[in-house]
Fold this protein.
Amino acid sequence: MTNLISRLPPVRGKLIENAPLSDITWLRVGGPADVLFLPADAADLARFLAETPRDIPVHVLGAGSNTLVRDGGVRGVVIKLTPAFGKVTVEDGYKVRAGAAALDKAVAKAAAKAGIAGLEFYVGVPGAIGGALRMNAGCYGSETKDILIEAVALDRRGRRIVAPLDELGYAYRHSDAPDDWIFIEALYQGQPDTPEAVTERMNAITERRESTQPIREKTSGSTFKNPDPQSSGGKSAWQLVDATGWRGKPIGGARFSEQHANFLINDGTATASDLETLVEHVRSDAKKKFGVDLHWEVRRIGEPAS
């Protein structure tokens, strides 16, 4: 976008032109952002949103664990939340307040240290709190909606919004939050327990995850949402990937993990196109063979390579 940075307001954080994104996403693919904005704090971000012309696209990137950046890069501005948004504090009444850039597992560990139960499952969720709020992240039978009191966001005009749980419209891997909201904070409700008991449950989750998921690969976590059991004949997403014959079968440098067939893997040579093409082949085969619509859980941003 010609002269984009000259149209942006002054900031206290950093504005970086033609910024590579592949290094800050877990799949390690994709082209650059026209501009990457690293806000100094919430006030800096709010002012930027309020004063940026509406015709300039704005995207937000958290930990990059659940995002596929296409090879042509991202037009407009990508906002990457900085450590200033990562503070975690414990409040009276067994509550935990967490910034959107805090890693899910760090929030779980802070709660455990304080003797607060209920957030253990976050140790098994890759990524940061902002993404968890956006998609109602969860694992092993627990979800964000089970523990959330309220979320704080900024909208495209920079206005601060405090949204209680019942206004977020949470469902399985879904929220009704407007697309232009950028989550900056969450407040959770836990229950009292001993740090030792909470930590023991977290360790069990970690051991289960390490034994069943390719967590040391270049991956994005779960690729597909689990379909409705009635429509899929009781098959989960990984079982459908397996049944279509795509477990371990490559396209370029992309494949679905042999260890867990719902995990998309970049072997180090994949392009974003390889990864997206593979997923679309699986979706097509699942529809043809089983009549099941598999839906992406991974967010895709940007444009294909020209």
